[in-house]
Each structure stands twice: as structure tokens, then as C-alpha cells.
């Protein structure tokens, strides 16, 4: 196997465009069989009902993407179809797909935004459409501007009696107590193993409502027992897509609820469903499994089909990654709800966003949309906040600190937003130097220093700010490591680059923590995640291979062969034990390029569709589990299993997805290269031909 490594750092001026095409959700949506079939069925029913009433069906498809819905409309008997698509590469691809399916003379493709489409003889549309089929939604339903697009279309492009597909959307909210979700939002007090408090959270951080950005998540994959349901799902908003006067930007709804059980109302789980046709015969639900109308029937169907493998409970319902569910955090209440207690759920939306609140009675003062006032939710990701709250992780670091630090220690912290580094200053060391180049992150850390009266701390706004005299006193260099720019866990190898540049200033006896990092790989069978990269071929009877070719072509140029995913949200079964790929040492040899080769041995290669990759940080040279911080599985994987792998919920892992089936030999040659100049790791997996 040639060690040719794909570098995503292309200098090609078209890189961003290629990446947008490669990572578009068009293929993901087309793999959503339930979405496709229910749009198809709604088109059939709607067009047939118009024809039965003696009317023609003139269809407008806004944001046609691959052209799939337009072709479905033609197959269902539409008298005319106009499809518009503003993203030019996709529009050009749709044009070729439509022609490949023999419908180029039946579908008029307009390569512009719907708000630019003109109506009249000889213009983009000969007449107003009396059927609108479109998919303008995201996880938050309205986050992609659906309200404005529908209003414009109703006013300028559609007849007054238009039938829209979907006909209506309903937003559901469920109030929950969920400490796991809250750990991604709200920083906790940091204590040592004896329960002594090291760092208290400043009040302005504790009361901050966090970011307004939607927190989309696969709710069905939350670990069992990680949340306590306080209400049944509550329908809070309805959007009738054909009613212009009802599609307003700003609304507030108040719903009287009764607590099903006692607990703190910490968050709202949100999802929506679509009534696809006016008569309500076709329903598409995005609910998590416990609230999904088809869960039990689909689970029984899986069992009746004689499948030997037990799926995770959340994977019997249709899977989709383009529409998930969302978590919204509630303003904190100091007193828990009691079972049966009445309270009011407040639901709000503007043109693009939703937010929620709770109260004991009807609220006279509306709750404004949340925004971060403390800085932490701007400077750090939700998964990073989860890491900072991870008690097992913190315990391992703090126990190690107690062993290696003394009252003479001077500690240089080469991580950003490291509360653990700050905690070291409360453990009796002489001084802590905190590397904080980001102004927002630095202000966040300064608030902790001030609130906890930590005196022996100095901030370094850049590595150059470390003076030679100060550097000569440093006894330990510590990194978690963490940098907000990191996407993949091993992107934090930037720590080694910083350390390398500072080495000439540091004493030869300095202790480096962590001492090394090891990358591991695990061949897996993903239950569903592979679909985001799998070819479509035929979709609902239409040939979409041209879109496969477009995405594959641009992926070759724009995408790294390994992408970041929170694998706890995407169940997988291990097909072998863990394989060590490469170890990168920070104490010595970091500046040298490294190349490792080997083979993955897979027990059932016909099931292989992905390779999971992560990094473990070794605090010292012992490689003991007690001094190792892992971004991978919670339990070591030693062999293939029919039990899904349990992944750390506070990290994203890397994943290499196969676009084609591997060879059947059960052996996957691999090579991994580390470039110390760029602090990058490059991977190559040779799946071979089928």
C-alpha cells in the first residue's frame, strides 16, 4: 500500500465550495426513507384529490436539491412542475438528474432563490402554483428561514387555495430533569477527592442562560436513566403553512402543566412533526423513541423479520441526521416541583429560534431569548463544558496533581480555559502560569480567579509573554490539553508545538504532563451513521447516481478521510478489538516526523462500514489506566461484540466512513503519519475492492 495521505489543507481557491458540496445534507435527506415515502404519498394523495375535483395540479418545489420531490410530483400526475434551487452546483446536478430520469421536458428548473422567481407568461412560472412541496426545515423547524420563505411564496407565487406539502407542523416540548444535559450547560463547583472545594463558580456564570444557538442532539441515544420526565409531550406551536396571516414571527404560548413526578425542571426536550396532507392521512414524526407514534410497531416488525441482533431502543424508529431533536435550558429554579404540582410552561419563538421558561403562574413579563453574558458559552463548546464537569476525569487529574506537585512547584499551563490548571493554584503550589491567548477565555478565567481569591496566578496572553527569567523557574508543564480551535481530539496536539517552541527556555529537568498521547482505532458496524457517506444509487425508483458522483468527486478534494462525530449519539458494534495506531511523545522526539503501518483484522468484514479513532492522553510514562485520560470508549474494547460500544459523551471522536464495501479478506492495511511542523495526523485505510 502506498502511503499517500490526503491533506485537507488545500490551497485550491474552490476548496470552500467543494467542501460545502461534499458535506451537504442532500444525500443524508435522500437516505431518509420515511421522509421520502411520506412526501411521495402526500403528493399522490394531494394531486389525485385535485384531479378528482376537476382541477389541475401545478406544483412549485422550493429548494429542490436533487430534484427528487419534483420527479415524485411528475410521477404522481402533476400537470406542471417548477423547481427552484439557488445553490448553483446542486442546481446543475439536479438538471442532469432530471434529464437522466427522462423528465427534462416535464420539469422547469429555475436556478435562483424562490424570492427572485417571477410569475407570468414567458417568465419563470407561467402561472401561480396551487401545490407547494418543499422541505425548508432544520432541527429547530424555523431556523433556516421557513417563515419568511413561506410568507413570500404565499403572497407572490401561490394561489389563494394552495395546498402545501407538508400541510402543518406541530412543535412539542417536554420538561425534564436531566443532570447530564445540564452538565453541558452549567459549570459545577470543583472539589478534590476529600470533598474540599477548590473552585466555586462565580454567580454571573452560575446564573447565565447560555448560548442562543440551537443544541441539536439525538435524544433517543441519551443513556438510560439519565433524565427524569416531568411532563408528557406538550404541543406548544402549530404552523399552518398555507395560512399567511398565521405565519407570524413572534409568538408566546403558555401551557398549564402538572408535574408527573418530583424534580427540578432543568431543560426542555423539543421536536416537531409534520402533517403532510390537508386531510391528515400522512404524519411524519421527529419524536424520540419514547414519544414516537410508530416505535412499538416498528420494534415488533424488526422482531417479526427474524433479526438476530438486538438494536438499541432508540434505533427502531426511522433515523435521520438532518432533523434531530433539541435541548433548551430553563432558567434555574431553586425549589423542585412536587408530583402533581401545577406550573406554567412558557414557549416563545421569533423568526428563526425557539426558547422556553417555566413559572408557577401565568407570566406577565415575557422571557427574552437567551444569550451568554458570562463568556463561557462563547469561549467554550458544550462538550468542553461537559469535560470540565466530568468528575471521573477531574478526579484522575487532581489525584495525580497531589502526587507530583509540591509547595515549590511552578506550573505552566498550556491549555485554554483550564479550570484544572487553575485548581492547581489552590493545591499549595508556588505559582501557576496560565496560557490564555483568547481574550474572552481569559476574562472567564479571571472571573474565577477573582471570585476564589486565587493570588498565585499569572496570565500569559501569548507564549512570547513568558520571560526567560520566569521560564527558568518552571518545574512542571501541564496541559489537559484543550484548545477551542480543535475539532478532532488529536487537534490538541498543538500543545506539543507550543511546548517545542518553549523548550529552549525551560529547565532540562522540567516535568511534562501529559507525557504522550496514543491514537487508537476500532473497526465498527454503524447502525445508521454510515448513511451520511453512503452512495444513493436508486432512491424511491429514481436514479440519483449523478449526485453520488458529484459528492464523491468533491469529497476527494475537500474532505479529510477522518471526520469528527460524537459517537455516543450514533450506535455501533465493534468488529474487533482496539488497535494501537501511533504514540506521540511530548518529552522527547516530538519534533520528528513519524510513520506507522499495520493491519486491522475484522471478524465479519461484510458488516464493516466505519473505523472509529480516538486519542488517549498519558499523564506519565506508566500508561496506567489511573493516569490515562481517554476520549474513546468508556470500557476498553478487546474483541468483537453484539453489544454496542459505550462512548464518552463529552468528546467527539474521529470516524472514517467507507463509501464502498471492503474486501472480504478481513484485513484492512493502514498507515498513519504525524507531521510535527503542522501538528497534524494523516490517515490512510486501504479497504480494497469488493
From TrEMBL:
List the PROSITE patterns: SAM_MT_PRMT
- Record bears the keyword Repeat: yes
Q: Which Pfam families match?
A: PrmA, PRMT_C
In what residue span(s) does the Protein arginine N-methyltransferase domain sit? Answer: 213-341
Keywords, ordered alphabetically: Methyltransferase, Repeat, S-adenosyl-L-methionine, Transferase
Instruction: Give the main EC class.
Output: transferase
According to the UniProt entry, its GO molecular function terms are: histone methyltransferase activity; protein-arginine N-methyltransferase activity
Which biological process annotations from GO are given for this protein? methylation
Stored SUPFAM superfamilies: S-adenosyl-L-methionine-dependent methyltransferases
**CDD domains the UniProt entry points to:** AdoMet_MTases (cd02440)
Q: Which InterPro entries match?
A: Arg_MeTrfase, MeTrfase_PRMT7, PRMT_dom, SAM-dependent_MTases_sf
Instruction: State which Enzyme Commission number(s) the record gives.
Output: 2.1.1.-
Annotated family? Belongs to the class I-like SAM-binding methyltransferase superfamily. Protein arginine N-methyltransferase family. PRMT7 subfamily.
Q: What does this protein do?
A: Essential arginine methyltransferase that can both catalyze the formation of omega-N monomethylarginine (MMA) and symmetrical dimethylarginine (sDMA). Specifically mediates the symmetrical dimethylation of arginine residues in the small nuclear ribonucleoproteins SmD1 and SmD3. Arginine methyltransferase that can both catalyze the formation of omega-N monomethylarginine (MMA) and symmetrical dimethylarginine (sDMA).
Q: Which PANTHER family match?
A: PROTEIN ARGININE N-METHYLTRANSFERASE, PROTEIN ARGININE N-METHYLTRANSFERASE 7
**Record protein name field:** Protein arginine N-methyltransferase
Amino acid at each position: 500500500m502506498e502511503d499517500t495521505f490526503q491533506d485537507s489543507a488545500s490551497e485550491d481557491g474552490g476548496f470552500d465550495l467543494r467542501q460545502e458540496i461534499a458535506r451537504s445534507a442532500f444525500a443524508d435527506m435522500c437516505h431518509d426513507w420515511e421522509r421520502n415515502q411520506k412526501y411521495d404519498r402526500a403528493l399522490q394523495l394531494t394531486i389525485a384529490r385535485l384531479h378528482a375535483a376537476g382541477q389541475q395540479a401545478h406544483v412549485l418545489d422550493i429548494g429542490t436539491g436533487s430534484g427528487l420531490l419534483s420527479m415524485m410530483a411528475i410521477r404522481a400526475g402533476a400537470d406542471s412542475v417548477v423547481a427552484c434551487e439557488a445553490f448553483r452546483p446542486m442546481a446543475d446536478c439536479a438538471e442532469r438528474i432530471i434529464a437522466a430520469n427522462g423528465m427534462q421536458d416535464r420539469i422547469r428548473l429555475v436556478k435562483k432563490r424562490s424570492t427572485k422567481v417571477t410569475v407570468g407568461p414567458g417568465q419563470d412560472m407561467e402561472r401561480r402554483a396551487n401545490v407547494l412541496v418543499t422541505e425548508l426545515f432544520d432541527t429547530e423547524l424555523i431556523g433556516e428561514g421557513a417563515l419568511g420563505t413561506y410568507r413570500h411564496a404565499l403572497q407572490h407565487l401561490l394561489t389563494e387555495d394552495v395546498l402545501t406539502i407538508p400541510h402543518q407542523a406541530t412543535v412539542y416540548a417536554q420538561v425534564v430533569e436531566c443532570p447530564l444535559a445540564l452538565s453541558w450547560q452549567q459549570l459545577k463547583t470543583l472539589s478534590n477527592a476529600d470533598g474540599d472545594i477548590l473552585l466555586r463558580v462565580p454567580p454571573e456564570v452560575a446564573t447565565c442562560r447560555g448560548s442562543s444557538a440551537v443544541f441539536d442532539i439525538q435524544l433517543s441515544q441519551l443513556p438510560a436513566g439519565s433524565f427524569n420526565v416531568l411532563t408528557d409531550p406538550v404541543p406548544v406551536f402549530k404552523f399552518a403553512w398555507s395560512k399567511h396571516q398565521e405565519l407570524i414571527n413572534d409568538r408566546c404560548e403558555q401551557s398549564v402543566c402538572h408535574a408527573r413526578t418530583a424534580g427540578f425542571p432543568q431543560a426542555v426536550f423539543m421536536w416537531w412533526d409534520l402533517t403532510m396532507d390537508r386531510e391528515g392521512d400522512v404524519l411524519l414524526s421527529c419524536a424520540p423513541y419514547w414519544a414516537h407514534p410508530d416505535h412499538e410497531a416498528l420494534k415488533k416488525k424488526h422482531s417479526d423479520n427474524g433479526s438476530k441482533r438486538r438494536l438499541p431502543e432508540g434505533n427502531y424508529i426511522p433515523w435521520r441526521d438532518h432533523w434531530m431533536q433539541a435541548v433548551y435550558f430553563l432558567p434555574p429554579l431553586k425549589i423542585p416541583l412536587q408530583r402533581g404540582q401545577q406550573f406554567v410552561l412558557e414557549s416563545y419563538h421569533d423568526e428563526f429560534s425557539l426558547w422556553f421558561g417555566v413559572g408557577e403562574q401565568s407570566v406577565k413579563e415575557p422571557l427574552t431569548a437567551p444569550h451568554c453574558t458570562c463568556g463561557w458559552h462563547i469561549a467554550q463548546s458544550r462538550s468542553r463544558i461537559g469535560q470540565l464537569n466530568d468528575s471521573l476525569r477531574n478526579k484522575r487529574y487532581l489525584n495525580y496533581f497531589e502526587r507530583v506537585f509540591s509547595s515549590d512547584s511552578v506550573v505552566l499551563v498550556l491549555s485554554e480555559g483550564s479550570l484544572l490548571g487553575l485548581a492547581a493554584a489552590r493545591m499549595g503550589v508556588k505559582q501557576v502560569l496560565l496560557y490564555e491567548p483568547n481574550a474572552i477565555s481569559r476574562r472567564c478565567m479571571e472571573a474565577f480567579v477573582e471570585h476564589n481569591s486565587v493570588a498565585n496566578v499569572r496570565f500569559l496572553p501569548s507564549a512570547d509573554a513568558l520571560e526567560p527569567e520566569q521560564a527558568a523557574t518552571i518545574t512542571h508543564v501541564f496541559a489537559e490539553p484543550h484548545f477551542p480551535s480543535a475539532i478532532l481530539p488529536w487537534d490538541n496536539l498543538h500543545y506539543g508545538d507550543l511546548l517545542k517552541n518553549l523548550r529552549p527556555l525551560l529547565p532540562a529537568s522540567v516535568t511534562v504532563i501529559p507525557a504522550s498521547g496514543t491514537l487508537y482505532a476500532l473497526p465498527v458496524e454503524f447502525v445508521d451513521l454510515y448513511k451520511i457517506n453512503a452512495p444513493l444509487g436508486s432512491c424511491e425508483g429514481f436514479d440519483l447516481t449523478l449526485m453520488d458522483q458529484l459528492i464523491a468527486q468533491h469529497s476527494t478534494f475537500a474532505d479529510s478521510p477522518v471526520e469528527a462525530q460524537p459517537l455516543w449519539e450514533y450506535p455501533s458494534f465493534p468488529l474487533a478489538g482496539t488497535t494501537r495506531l501511533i504514540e506521540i511523545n511530548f518529552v522527547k522526539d516530538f519534533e520528528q516526523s513519524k510513520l506507522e503501518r499495520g493491519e486491522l483484522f475484522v471478524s465479519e468484514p461484510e458488516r464493516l462500514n466505519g473505523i472509529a479513532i480516538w486519542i488517549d492522553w498519558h499523564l506519565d510514562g506508566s500508561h496506567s489506566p489511573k493516569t490515562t485520560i481517554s476520549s474513546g470508549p468508556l470500557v476498553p474494547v478487546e474483541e468483537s461484540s453484539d453489544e454496542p460500544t459505550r462512548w464518552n459523551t463529552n468528546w467527539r471522536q474521529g470516524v472514517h466512513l467507507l463509501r464502498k464495501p471492503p474486501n472480504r479478506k478481513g484485513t484492512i492495511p493502514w498507515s498513519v503519519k504525524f507531521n510535527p511542523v503542522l501538528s497534524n495526523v494523516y490517515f490512510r485505510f486501504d479497504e480494497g475492492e469488493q
